[in-house]
From TrEMBL:
The keyword GTP-binding does not apply. It comes from Umezawaea tangerina. One of its GO terms (biological process) is methylation. Keywords: Methyltransferase, Transferase. This is tRNA (Guanosine-2'-O-)-methyltransferase.
Length: 170
């Protein structure tokens, strides 16, 4: 077998058949971030899957996103005020809300279907998870199975895996 790598121009032509439209189909929402380094990683993933990143409007969050942005151009980042109120408005507008959380009712990542409608992937606090009042708004909870000793993955890794799956790229 002969392996030929693709050039950057070939990749660019393939990956963006149409311009990205903000708030279009998929949003990744780490609404209770603890570590700024995760936000830059999630912004890169959002670009890869054609999603927008939704964050709370804390000054340190803006700085972390800017510091972690390795895209060489602005990423699609939106700031929302009260996370629970924003999620309630999204649900009322018909958007599907999928939380990444360890829960008895959770669907395994491998069984999660690709999004067929506007979807928000909700990510909680690295230590405390998604708050109770936000959990009540979710349509679905997804869990990432683990074999090792850790209880969970960090927000950037978990969010990236779920975003790829929901985008239909895995």
């Amino acid at each position: 077998m002969v392996v030929r790598t693709r050039t950057r121009s070939e990749l660019s032509r393939q990956r963006r058949p149409r311009p990205h439209r903000c708030w279009d189909h998929l949003l990744v929402a780490p609404l209770w971030p603890l570590h700024g380094s995760n936000l830059g990683t999630l912004l890169r993933t959002c670009d890869a899957v054609g999603a927008c990143l939704v964050v709370p409007p804390f000054r340190w969050v803006d700085e972390a996103v800017a510091r972690g942005n390795t895209l060489r151009r602005p990423g699609c980042v939106h700031r929302v005020g009260d996370p629970v109120r924003w999620l309630a408005a999204q649900r009322a507008a018909g958007t599907k809300l999928i939380g990444v959380e360890l829960a008895e009712e959770a669907v395994r990542l491998g069984d999660l279907p690709a999004a067929r409608e506007r979807t928000v992937v909700v990510l909680g606090h690295e230590s405390d998870g998604i708050p109770e009042d936000a959990l009540d708004l979710l349509h679905l909870v997804v869990e990432i199975p683990m074999v090792g000793a850790g209880h969970s993955l960090n927000v950037a890794v978990a969010g990236s895996l779920v975003a790829y799956k929901v985008a239909g790229l895995l």
